[in-house]
């Protein structure tokens, strides 16, 4: 699984679920998100194998996005994503027996939508990520350099 979370709005923009996620798939996912939301200035990633290949580097270079890597073994450098992953595990993955890829995709997408639309965050003034992003888009305050990818 690959989660794409905006570290400013706390929106979970996508969760890519599959048996394997090579760098090309990561680049394609990011391109789809860029077409919907625009390009960020930078993306934070860890040292996972899906980020180590040339496909992601080539995509980032081509579109002018800086890739920022956290240091190996230093998840605290991306603490928000670690917290998000813990909630995702506790509230979604550990609550269900996932018996097929299709079922996993459906359950995970349902959790993602609920997370964005029904879960207020104290860091966002007790707004949901969707409400916060919408309010800031209306004020044209939301910048596109706030997106990060956990892994």
From TrEMBL:
Residues 1-136 form the Integrase catalytic domain. Transmembrane segments: none annotated. Gene3D superfamilies: Ribonuclease H-like superfamily/Ribonuclease H. One of its GO terms (molecular function) is nucleic acid binding. GO terms for biological process: DNA integration. InterPro entries: Integrase_cat-core (IPR001584), RNaseH-like_sf (IPR012337), RNaseH_sf (IPR036397). This is Mobile element protein. It comes from plant metagenome.
């Amino acid at each position: 699984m690959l989660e794409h979370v905006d570290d400013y709005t706390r929106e979970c923009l996508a969760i890519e679920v599959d048996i394997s996620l090579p760098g090309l798939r990561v680049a394609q996912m990011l391109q789809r998100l860029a077409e919907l939301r625009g390009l960020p200035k930078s993306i934070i990633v860890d040292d996972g194998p899906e980020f180590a290949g040339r496909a992601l580097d080539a995509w980032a270079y081509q579109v002018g996005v800086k890739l920022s890597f956290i240091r190996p073994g230093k998840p605290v450098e991306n603490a928000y994503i670690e917290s998000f992953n813990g909630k995702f595990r506790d509230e979604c993955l550990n609550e269900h027996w996932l018996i097929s890829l299709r079922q996993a995709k459906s359950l995970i997408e349902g959790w993602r939508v609920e997370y964005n639309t029904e879960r207020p965050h104290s860091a966002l003034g007790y707004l949901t990520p969707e409400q916060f992003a919408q309010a800031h888009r209306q004020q044209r305050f939301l910048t596109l350099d706030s997106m990060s990818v956990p892994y």
